[in-house]
Amino acid sequence: MHLQFFVRSPNHQTLTLTLEATQSLTLHHLKSSVLPEPQLLSSFYFTFNGKPLADSTLLPNSQLTPLSTLFLVPRLSGGGGDGGATGAESRDCYLKMYAVKKPDKVDPNEQRLGKWLNCALSNEPLREPCVIDKLGNIFNKEALVQALLGKKLPKEFRHVKGLKDMVNIKLSVIPGKESDAADGATFQCPITGLEFNGKYKFFALKNCGHVVSAKALKEVKSSACLVCHKEFVESDKMVINGNEEEVAVLREMMEEEKAKTVKEKKKRGIDVLDGEKGCGKLEGNGKLENEKALSNGGVKKFRAADLAPANATKEVYASIFTSSNKSNFKETFTCRSLPLGRN
Protein backbone atom coordinates (compact mmCIF):
# COMPACT_ATOMS: atom_id res chain seq x y z
CA MET A 1 0.00 0.00 0.00
CA HIS A 2 1.32 3.46 -0.92
CA LEU A 3 0.65 6.87 0.76
CA GLN A 4 0.69 10.02 -1.34
CA PHE A 5 1.29 13.55 0.07
CA PHE A 6 1.81 16.98 -1.47
CA VAL A 7 4.70 19.12 -0.21
CA ARG A 8 4.97 22.87 -0.87
CA SER A 9 8.66 23.78 -0.93
CA PRO A 10 10.09 27.20 0.14
CA ASN A 11 10.47 28.18 -3.53
CA HIS A 12 6.67 27.72 -3.98
CA GLN A 13 6.92 24.45 -5.90
CA THR A 14 4.51 21.63 -5.16
CA LEU A 15 6.03 18.17 -4.95
CA THR A 16 4.12 14.92 -4.96
CA LEU A 17 5.62 12.27 -2.69
CA THR A 18 4.61 8.64 -2.59
CA LEU A 19 5.73 6.53 0.38
CA GLU A 20 5.24 2.92 1.27
CA ALA A 21 2.89 2.42 4.19
CA THR A 22 4.73 1.10 7.21
CA GLN A 23 3.92 1.14 10.88
CA SER A 24 6.71 3.60 11.77
CA LEU A 25 6.29 6.13 8.95
CA THR A 26 6.86 9.70 10.29
CA LEU A 27 7.41 13.21 8.97
CA HIS A 28 11.13 12.60 9.32
CA HIS A 29 10.91 10.00 6.54
CA LEU A 30 8.94 12.42 4.45
CA LYS A 31 11.54 15.17 5.00
CA SER A 32 14.38 12.76 4.12
CA SER A 33 12.75 12.02 0.80
CA VAL A 34 12.55 15.72 0.00
CA LEU A 35 15.98 16.74 1.36
CA PRO A 36 18.58 14.19 0.42
CA GLU A 37 21.39 15.98 2.29
CA PRO A 38 21.34 15.03 6.03
CA GLN A 39 22.76 18.40 7.21
CA LEU A 40 19.68 20.18 5.85
CA LEU A 41 17.15 18.12 7.82
CA SER A 42 17.46 20.23 11.00
CA SER A 43 17.12 23.48 9.03
CA PHE A 44 13.54 22.77 7.87
CA TYR A 45 10.25 21.69 9.42
CA PHE A 46 6.71 20.97 8.25
CA THR A 47 3.58 23.00 8.93
CA PHE A 48 -0.04 22.09 8.33
CA ASN A 49 -2.79 24.75 8.38
CA GLY A 50 -0.30 27.23 9.84
CA LYS A 51 0.71 24.99 12.77
CA PRO A 52 4.26 23.60 13.11
CA LEU A 53 4.59 19.81 13.28
CA ALA A 54 7.25 17.74 15.00
CA ASP A 55 9.38 15.36 12.96
CA SER A 56 8.16 12.46 15.08
CA THR A 57 4.54 12.89 13.92
CA LEU A 58 3.21 9.58 12.59
CA LEU A 59 1.75 9.25 9.12
CA PRO A 60 -1.12 9.00 8.56
CA ASN A 61 -3.12 10.32 11.55
CA SER A 62 -6.44 11.99 12.27
CA GLN A 63 -5.19 15.32 10.90
CA LEU A 64 -2.74 14.28 8.19
CA THR A 65 -4.61 12.05 5.80
CA PRO A 66 -3.34 10.94 2.41
CA LEU A 67 -3.33 13.65 -0.26
CA SER A 68 -2.80 16.35 2.41
CA THR A 69 -0.65 19.37 1.53
CA LEU A 70 2.28 20.11 3.84
CA PHE A 71 4.47 23.20 3.82
CA LEU A 72 8.22 22.85 4.16
CA VAL A 73 9.44 25.97 6.05
CA PRO A 74 13.07 26.92 6.82
CA ARG A 75 13.98 27.63 10.41
CA LEU A 76 15.01 31.23 11.11
CA SER A 77 18.26 31.72 12.94
CA GLY A 78 17.83 33.03 16.47
CA GLY A 79 14.22 31.85 16.71
CA GLY A 80 14.98 29.10 19.21
CA GLY A 81 14.38 26.26 16.75
CA ASP A 82 10.81 25.73 17.98
CA GLY A 83 9.05 27.20 14.97
CA GLY A 84 7.53 30.02 16.99
CA ALA A 85 8.34 32.75 14.48
CA THR A 86 7.16 31.65 11.05
CA GLY A 87 5.70 33.40 8.09
CA ALA A 88 2.79 30.99 8.04
CA GLU A 89 1.39 32.16 11.40
CA SER A 90 -1.34 34.75 11.71
CA ARG A 91 -0.14 38.16 12.89
CA ASP A 92 -3.53 39.33 14.17
CA CYS A 93 -2.60 38.55 17.77
CA TYR A 94 0.45 40.81 17.56
CA LEU A 95 -1.48 43.62 15.91
CA LYS A 96 -4.21 43.46 18.55
CA MET A 97 -1.63 43.41 21.33
CA TYR A 98 -0.04 46.65 20.15
CA ALA A 99 -3.34 48.26 19.10
CA VAL A 100 -4.65 48.32 22.69
CA LYS A 101 -3.05 51.25 24.48
CA LYS A 102 -2.13 50.40 28.03
CA PRO A 103 -2.84 53.11 30.60
CA ASP A 104 0.18 54.91 31.92
CA LYS A 105 1.17 53.95 35.43
CA VAL A 106 0.70 56.79 37.89
CA ASP A 107 3.28 57.22 40.59
CA PRO A 108 1.32 57.30 43.89
CA ASN A 109 3.89 59.66 45.43
CA GLU A 110 3.49 62.14 42.57
CA GLN A 111 -0.29 61.87 42.82
CA ARG A 112 -0.18 62.55 46.56
CA LEU A 113 2.15 65.54 46.20
CA GLY A 114 -0.01 66.97 43.40
CA LYS A 115 -3.06 66.86 45.65
CA TRP A 116 -1.35 68.62 48.57
CA LEU A 117 0.95 71.06 46.81
CA ASN A 118 -1.36 72.23 44.01
CA CYS A 119 -4.74 73.91 43.73
CA ALA A 120 -7.54 71.34 43.38
CA LEU A 121 -9.14 73.42 40.61
CA SER A 122 -6.34 74.96 38.52
CA ASN A 123 -3.61 72.40 39.42
CA GLU A 124 -1.24 75.33 39.91
CA PRO A 125 1.13 75.48 42.92
CA LEU A 126 -0.55 76.74 46.07
CA ARG A 127 0.05 80.40 46.80
CA GLU A 128 -1.66 82.64 49.30
CA PRO A 129 -4.44 83.57 49.69
CA CYS A 130 -5.71 79.99 49.90
CA VAL A 131 -9.15 78.66 50.84
CA ILE A 132 -10.80 75.32 51.46
CA ASP A 133 -14.37 74.28 50.75
CA LYS A 134 -16.61 72.52 53.23
CA LEU A 135 -15.33 69.12 52.06
CA GLY A 136 -11.67 69.89 52.78
CA ASN A 137 -10.46 70.55 49.22
CA ILE A 138 -7.79 73.24 49.04
CA PHE A 139 -7.74 75.98 46.38
CA ASN A 140 -6.01 79.14 45.33
CA LYS A 141 -8.67 81.72 46.15
CA GLU A 142 -8.17 83.68 42.92
CA ALA A 143 -8.70 80.59 40.75
CA LEU A 144 -11.85 79.57 42.64
CA VAL A 145 -13.39 83.05 42.52
CA GLN A 146 -12.71 83.39 38.79
CA ALA A 147 -14.35 80.02 38.14
CA LEU A 148 -17.38 81.10 40.18
CA LEU A 149 -17.73 84.37 38.28
CA GLY A 150 -17.34 82.62 34.93
CA LYS A 151 -19.62 79.73 35.98
CA LYS A 152 -16.93 77.22 35.02
CA LEU A 153 -16.81 75.09 38.15
CA PRO A 154 -16.55 71.32 37.51
CA LYS A 155 -19.34 69.09 38.72
CA GLU A 156 -17.40 67.86 41.77
CA PHE A 157 -17.11 71.44 43.07
CA ARG A 158 -20.68 72.63 42.33
CA HIS A 159 -21.42 72.70 46.06
CA VAL A 160 -19.41 75.94 46.23
CA LYS A 161 -21.99 78.65 45.54
CA GLY A 162 -20.18 81.74 46.84
CA LEU A 163 -17.78 83.19 49.36
CA LYS A 164 -19.84 81.82 52.25
CA ASP A 165 -18.89 78.30 51.13
CA MET A 166 -15.16 79.05 51.41
CA VAL A 167 -12.97 79.11 54.51
CA ASN A 168 -9.93 81.38 54.36
CA ILE A 169 -6.89 79.53 55.68
CA LYS A 170 -3.41 80.61 56.78
CA LEU A 171 -0.51 78.36 55.75
CA SER A 172 2.92 78.58 57.36
CA VAL A 173 5.73 78.72 54.81
CA ILE A 174 8.85 76.65 55.49
CA PRO A 175 11.69 79.11 56.28
CA GLY A 176 14.00 79.53 53.29
CA LYS A 177 11.49 78.21 50.74
CA GLU A 178 9.54 80.31 48.27
CA SER A 179 5.80 79.89 47.95
CA ASP A 180 6.08 78.75 44.31
CA ALA A 181 9.00 76.32 44.75
CA ALA A 182 8.62 73.13 42.72
CA ASP A 183 10.83 70.81 44.79
CA GLY A 184 8.69 69.26 47.52
CA ALA A 185 6.53 70.85 50.18
CA THR A 186 6.62 74.60 50.78
CA PHE A 187 4.34 74.73 53.85
CA GLN A 188 4.56 73.18 57.29
CA CYS A 189 2.82 72.92 60.64
CA PRO A 190 3.75 76.02 62.68
CA ILE A 191 3.86 73.95 65.89
CA THR A 192 5.53 70.63 65.04
CA GLY A 193 7.28 71.57 61.78
CA LEU A 194 5.73 68.61 59.88
CA GLU A 195 5.67 69.24 56.15
CA PHE A 196 2.39 69.87 54.34
CA ASN A 197 2.92 67.07 51.79
CA GLY A 198 0.19 64.48 52.43
CA LYS A 199 2.17 62.20 54.72
CA TYR A 200 0.54 63.71 57.81
CA LYS A 201 -3.02 64.72 58.61
CA PHE A 202 -3.74 68.45 58.86
CA PHE A 203 -6.74 70.40 60.18
CA ALA A 204 -7.95 73.90 59.39
CA LEU A 205 -9.68 75.85 62.16
CA LYS A 206 -12.74 77.66 60.80
CA ASN A 207 -12.80 80.32 63.50
CA CYS A 208 -9.31 81.67 62.76
CA GLY A 209 -8.14 79.88 59.60
CA HIS A 210 -4.82 78.54 60.91
CA VAL A 211 -3.71 75.15 59.55
CA VAL A 212 -2.03 72.84 62.06
CA SER A 213 -1.18 69.15 62.07
CA ALA A 214 -3.26 66.53 63.84
CA LYS A 215 -0.18 65.61 65.87
CA ALA A 216 0.00 69.11 67.33
CA LEU A 217 -3.66 69.08 68.36
CA LYS A 218 -3.24 65.64 69.89
CA GLU A 219 -0.12 66.36 71.90
CA VAL A 220 -1.19 69.80 73.14
CA LYS A 221 -4.64 69.49 74.65
CA SER A 222 -6.20 72.92 74.32
CA SER A 223 -9.52 74.51 73.33
CA ALA A 224 -7.70 77.50 71.87
CA CYS A 225 -5.73 77.83 68.64
CA LEU A 226 -2.08 77.02 69.22
CA VAL A 227 -1.01 79.90 66.97
CA CYS A 228 -3.33 82.83 67.76
CA HIS A 229 -4.90 81.43 71.00
CA LYS A 230 -8.44 82.01 69.76
CA GLU A 231 -11.04 79.71 71.28
CA PHE A 232 -12.59 77.02 69.05
CA VAL A 233 -14.95 74.07 69.37
CA GLU A 234 -14.66 70.58 67.94
CA SER A 235 -16.91 71.40 64.98
CA ASP A 236 -14.48 74.14 63.91
CA LYS A 237 -11.86 71.52 63.00
CA MET A 238 -11.97 70.65 59.29
CA VAL A 239 -9.72 67.92 57.95
CA ILE A 240 -7.85 68.82 54.74
CA ASN A 241 -7.82 66.28 51.87
CA GLY A 242 -9.40 63.63 54.06
CA ASN A 243 -10.16 60.03 53.12
CA GLU A 244 -13.57 58.81 51.93
CA GLU A 245 -14.98 58.38 55.44
CA GLU A 246 -13.82 61.81 56.58
CA VAL A 247 -15.20 63.46 53.44
CA ALA A 248 -18.54 61.69 53.99
CA VAL A 249 -18.73 63.15 57.51
CA LEU A 250 -17.96 66.65 56.19
CA ARG A 251 -20.60 66.25 53.47
CA GLU A 252 -23.19 65.26 56.04
CA MET A 253 -22.33 68.31 58.16
CA MET A 254 -22.60 70.52 55.07
CA GLU A 255 -26.06 69.16 54.23
CA GLU A 256 -27.24 69.65 57.82
CA GLU A 257 -25.97 73.22 57.84
CA LYS A 258 -27.69 73.92 54.53
CA ALA A 259 -31.00 72.52 55.79
CA LYS A 260 -30.69 74.58 58.97
CA THR A 261 -30.10 77.76 56.94
CA VAL A 262 -33.17 77.12 54.77
CA LYS A 263 -35.27 76.52 57.89
CA GLU A 264 -34.11 79.78 59.47
CA LYS A 265 -34.90 81.71 56.29
CA LYS A 266 -38.43 80.31 56.25
CA LYS A 267 -38.83 81.18 59.92
CA ARG A 268 -37.67 84.76 59.34
CA GLY A 269 -40.22 85.07 56.52
CA ILE A 270 -43.03 84.11 58.92
CA ASP A 271 -41.76 86.57 61.51
CA VAL A 272 -41.87 89.41 58.97
CA LEU A 273 -45.44 88.53 58.08
CA ASP A 274 -46.38 88.54 61.77
CA GLY A 275 -44.84 92.01 62.07
CA GLU A 276 -47.03 93.26 59.24
CA LYS A 277 -50.09 91.91 61.00
CA GLY A 278 -49.17 93.93 64.09
CA CYS A 279 -49.34 97.18 62.09
CA GLY A 280 -53.08 96.94 61.53
CA LYS A 281 -55.69 99.24 63.04
CA LEU A 282 -57.14 97.98 66.31
CA GLU A 283 -60.94 98.08 66.31
CA GLY A 284 -63.28 98.17 69.27
CA ASN A 285 -63.63 94.41 69.44
CA GLY A 286 -59.87 94.01 69.94
CA LYS A 287 -59.16 92.57 66.49
CA LEU A 288 -56.91 94.00 63.86
CA GLU A 289 -58.84 95.60 61.05
CA ASN A 290 -56.53 94.29 58.33
CA GLU A 291 -56.00 90.84 59.88
CA LYS A 292 -58.48 89.15 57.57
CA ALA A 293 -57.05 90.80 54.51
CA LEU A 294 -53.51 89.83 55.43
CA SER A 295 -54.50 86.24 56.14
CA ASN A 296 -56.08 85.97 52.69
CA GLY A 297 -53.65 87.81 50.48
CA GLY A 298 -50.75 88.77 52.69
CA VAL A 299 -50.99 92.50 51.72
CA LYS A 300 -54.03 94.71 52.38
CA LYS A 301 -55.54 96.50 49.40
CA PHE A 302 -55.71 100.31 49.70
CA ARG A 303 -59.19 101.73 50.21
CA ALA A 304 -59.60 105.49 50.50
CA ALA A 305 -62.92 105.14 52.39
CA ASP A 306 -61.12 103.46 55.30
CA LEU A 307 -59.06 106.64 55.87
CA ALA A 308 -61.93 109.13 55.71
CA PRO A 309 -62.09 111.81 58.49
CA ALA A 310 -64.62 111.41 61.25
CA ASN A 311 -67.11 114.05 59.94
CA ALA A 312 -66.72 113.22 56.24
CA THR A 313 -68.88 111.02 54.08
CA LYS A 314 -66.88 108.01 53.02
CA GLU A 315 -68.26 107.95 49.46
CA VAL A 316 -67.54 111.61 48.87
CA TYR A 317 -64.08 111.34 50.39
CA ALA A 318 -63.27 108.26 48.30
CA SER A 319 -64.38 110.03 45.10
CA ILE A 320 -61.46 112.44 45.50
CA PHE A 321 -59.01 109.55 44.88
CA THR A 322 -61.05 107.00 42.91
CA SER A 323 -64.15 106.77 40.78
CA SER A 324 -66.71 105.35 43.15
CA ASN A 325 -69.86 105.39 40.94
CA LYS A 326 -68.86 103.01 38.21
CA SER A 327 -72.47 102.32 37.30
CA ASN A 328 -72.72 105.81 35.73
CA PHE A 329 -69.76 105.13 33.44
CA LYS A 330 -70.54 104.60 29.77
CA GLU A 331 -68.27 103.88 26.85
CA THR A 332 -68.30 106.01 23.70
CA PHE A 333 -66.62 105.54 20.36
CA THR A 334 -63.89 108.02 21.34
CA CYS A 335 -63.22 107.12 24.96
CA ARG A 336 -63.63 104.15 27.27
CA SER A 337 -64.65 103.89 30.93
CA LEU A 338 -65.30 107.60 31.46
CA PRO A 339 -68.57 109.31 32.44
CA LEU A 340 -70.21 111.37 29.73
CA GLY A 341 -69.76 114.55 31.69
CA ARG A 342 -65.95 114.32 31.65
CA ASN A 343 -65.00 113.64 28.06
UniProtKB/TrEMBL annotation:
Q: What InterPro entries does this protein map onto?
A: Rtf2, Rtf2_RING-finger, Ubiquitin-like_dom, Ubiquitin-like_domsf
From which source organism is this entry? Theobroma cacao
Q: What is this protein called?
A: Protein RTF2 homolog
What's the short name of a Pfam family annotated to this entry? Answer: Rtf2
Q: Which CDD domains does the entry mention? A: RING-like_Rtf2
Name all Ubiquitin-like domain ranges: 3-79
